[in-house]
Structure formats: structure tokens, C-alpha cells
């Protein structure tokens, strides 16, 4: 039986949590969702890495729910707060076509891990109706390699995090005890899928058409985790494009809690991580200017584009 078969929702094991929720009967899994597709926003987004956003924007679709539970999440309204609107899967097909019509360079599926079972069918339907732009799978990295394998023919670009090399830190900050191993397995499979399809490919004007881009968010005070995460990316994916991000901004919970995660990443910390990435040999490193997140990195989750086309 395929991992992405609809009736796997009877006992969901779509992500490495394998919590076994009976989503088909309306039970919500550890990701916070049942069986009805819920979306929070669908609009052009201009703040991904340049080969993804280009000049016209990435057609970004934010899915509600998340298998992780990161205490510092910037998207907590949708990841753990359940914000969004329930829509039939046919609406997802329409949204992809509407974003293409608006000029999107690609369709960017943000945290679709727990909806993966419907992606091969919906993407194929959109292709049959004229969708031509690449599909970006934008993920926390906490994926099953079997799911990556089954999505390998419909996903063109894997835009994945590698958050933790330190399992204890993953347990403390994302309530997940096996992030490093599971993310390494998934990253290895993503690398295999892209090699199978002929490797990285860009358009003449520098947009990614097919490939893998690995992101790492530097956390204040946890620089050793960042260095080991870069080691893991190099080990499991080799010289792929990476994005080393310093946009960590303490959310209300982190500010209230105080301590090391109540501050931003210092310039010295960020430089140390960037220097290490350079020393390892990564030839394409995207980095960020400024010390903290700009509001534009976190769009308004106001259901724009979910029920009707974004203006
Ligand atoms: S996708 Fe959600 S319901 Fe399924 S195993 Fe993961 S956390 Fe549980």
C-alpha cells in the first residue's frame, strides 16, 4: 500500500511522529488537523531566496497545522493555532492555477507534510488543466523518506530546513526527539530524487527549475548546533545551495519566558556560522542582512486567496 494512499488516514503515519491518529474519523493528529484540508493564505510572496522568489514572486500556499511544535515559531497562528479555512481539495487545484495566472514563478507548498497524501493527485489535476510552473515543497525537514520517494515525481524543488543536529535541542524546542536522524534520512532521499531527475537546473535568468535548497535558522546561543547542522547537510547532501538565516525573532512566548531565546542572533554568532559554511566548501550560500526579522518575512495570515483569487 502506498504511504500516500487516502486510507492511510485511518491510522496516520504520514510523518515521522507516526502518531496513528484516525484522521478519517475526524480525530486530529499531533499536527493538529483531521481530514479536511485547511489553508491560511495563498498569494505571491517575495521574500524567499532569489532563485525561488525571482522578480514576480513565489506562489505560496500556507497549509494549516504542523507536525512540529517549535516554541519559537513565527507562524504559530497557523502551525499550532489552527487558523485557516476548510476547503475541498479541488480548491487547491484552482489556487495553483490562479497563482500561475498572477505571474508566480512556482507553486510553493508551505508545510504540506500532513497533507502529502493528496498532493500527487491534486498536482496531476492542475498539470492536466495547464499548470506549467515548478512545484516547491517547503518543509521543516521532518519527513519520512518513503513520502519523499513517493512525491519525487511531482515535486520539482525541495526547499527544506535542517534545524537541529542536537537531538536534545530538538526535543526541548520542537517537542521532537529524533529530528537529526529523521531529517538526515529525508535529506538523503531528496538528494537522491534530484539526482534521479538529472540534478539542479536553473532558467537562463537564474530561477531554480529543479533542485534542492537547504535552510538553516541560526538560534541565539546555540551556535554549536548550527555548525553541526552544516556538517550534516554537507554529509547528506553535499555541495547544495544553502540559506543560513539570522531572522530569528523572539515571539511573545519567548519574550515572556526570558533567557537566551529572548534575544536576537548577534552579528558575531551569525558571522561564525557563515564562515564555517564557507570553510566547509558550500559554493552557494544565501545569507541575510540586518539583525532581526522584517515583518514582510511573515505575511499576514488573513486567508487571502483561499476562497477567491488574491487581488
Ligand atoms: S501527519 Fe499528523 S496525524 Fe499523521 S502521523 Fe504526523 S502528526 Fe500524526
Characterization of this structure:
With 311 residues, this protein is an alpha/beta fold. 32% of the residues lie in helices and 16% in strands. The protein is built from ten helices and ten strands. Strand 4 (107-110), helix 4 and strand 5 (135-139) form a beta-alpha-beta unit. It is globular. The model has no long low-confidence stretch (mean pLDDT 93). Bound molecules: iron/sulfur cluster (SF4). Iron/sulfur cluster (SF4) binds at residues 12-15, 17-19, 21, 23, 29-31, 67, 114.
Q: Give the integer mean of the pLDDT values.
A: 93
**Which fold name corresponds to the CATH topology?**
TIM Barrel
Write down the Rg.
18 Å
Number of helices: 10
Shape: globular
Query: Into how many domains do the coordinates divide?
Result: 1
CATH class: Alpha Beta
User: What is the H-and-E element order?
Assistant: EHEHEHEHEHEHHEEHEHHE
Strand content: 15-25%
Question: First CA to last CA: what distance?
Answer: 42 Å
Tell me about the biggest sheet?
10 strands, mixed
Helix content: 25-40%
Gross CATH architecture? Alpha-Beta Barrel
Oligomeric state of shown chains: single chain
Number of strands: 10
Protein name: Radical SAM protein
Keywords: Iron, Iron-sulfur, Metal-binding, S-adenosyl-L-methionine
Organism: Collinsella ureilytica
Pfam families: Radical_SAM
